[in-house]
Design the sequence.
């Protein structure tokens, strides 16, 4: 009798363990990011891309906040169903460091914290420990442009080298991916052109070596001609609105004044008790043709 009960208990235990393992078999994966950026001195954006649609929650805790247990995840916003891109915007006080947790659930609306399943945890320090007021501090700003490969899916070890420098901020300053140089090579419909832009951003954003950098510093971006359209494209570019839409989808930092979208991107970040402002100007969306006589740009 005891042997039979023990056998039944073992079988029941195996069924339970197996069902738990099976429940996580369809666990989604974060294929790009999370990437963190600031859209104002007190608003943080967490961006990430998944391999499939699911309900995702984000929990952010910093040195100015109190750790809460169980974690109170906030549901991330699905901003692109086709590209499976999610965002969380949160008002914050800039701490010396953050912890960012991303979890998922197979339920559309999560009411019980036990329904969240943690996917990853990031320890994120954007500016090191700030020095006392009136004392100099050391900050590392990194930047780069012209991220182009002749063959896709090749390794890009440069991102590993940049991440090893532990920059407080990385600025993507244009040609962050490459589109066709000839206008004749673009599709004829808006939807197809948007797919072209997104496919190019997807290939570059999902590079394995880039993830460590995205997950360890604040990222900001502006564009140049090759991620705006054809070579040396200007304000006459037919699909400039699609270019701006795609840029904002993959780099959700500030993009200019209300009446000059895409013209004056600004990246503003507040560190502890003072503010450091970085302004990057790229006027391609407003630029007119080059004057053949002087070589100058109009607009």
Sequence:
């Amino acid at each position: 009798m005891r042997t039979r009960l023990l056998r039944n208990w073992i079988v029941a235990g195996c069924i339970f363990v197996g069902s738990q393992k099976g429940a996580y078999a369809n666990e989604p994966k974060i294929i790009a990011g999370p990437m963190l950026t600031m859209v104002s001195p007190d608003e943080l954006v967490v961006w990430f891309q998944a391999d499939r649609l699911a309900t995702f929650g984000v929990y952010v805790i910093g040195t100015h906040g109190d750790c809460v247990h169980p974690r109170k995840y906030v549901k991330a916003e699905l901003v692109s169903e086709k590209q499976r891109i999610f965002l969380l915007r949160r008002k914050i006080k800039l701490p010396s460091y953050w912890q960012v947790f991303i979890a998922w659930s197979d339920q559309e609306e999560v009411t019980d914290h036990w329904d969240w399943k943690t996917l990853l945890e990031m320890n994120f320090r954007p500016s090191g420990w700030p020095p006392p007021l009136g004392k100099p501090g050391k900050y590392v700003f990194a930047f780069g442009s012209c991220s182009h490969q002749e063959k896709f899916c090749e390794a890009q070890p440069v991102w590993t080298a940049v991440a090893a420098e532990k920059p407080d901020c990385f600025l993507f300053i244009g040609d962050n991916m490459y589109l066709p140089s000839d206008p004749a090579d673009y599709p004829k419909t808006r939807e197809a052109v948007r797919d072209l832009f997104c496919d190019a951003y997807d290939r570059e954003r999902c590079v394995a070596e880039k993830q460590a950098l995205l997950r360890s510093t604040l990222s900001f971006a502006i564009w140049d001609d090759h991620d705006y359209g054809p070579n040396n494209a200007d304000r006459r570019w037919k699909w400039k609105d699609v270019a701006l839409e795609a840029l904002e989808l993959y780099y959700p930092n500030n993009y200019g004044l209300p009446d000059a979208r895409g013209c004056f991107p600004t990246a503003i970040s507040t560190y502890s008790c003072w503010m450091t402002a970085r302004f990057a100007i790229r006027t391609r969306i407003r630029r007119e043709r080059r004057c053949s006589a002087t070589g100058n740009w109009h607009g």
Notes: Helices lie at 2-23, 158-164, 190-205, 211-214, 240-250. The chain has two domains: 30-124, 141-286.
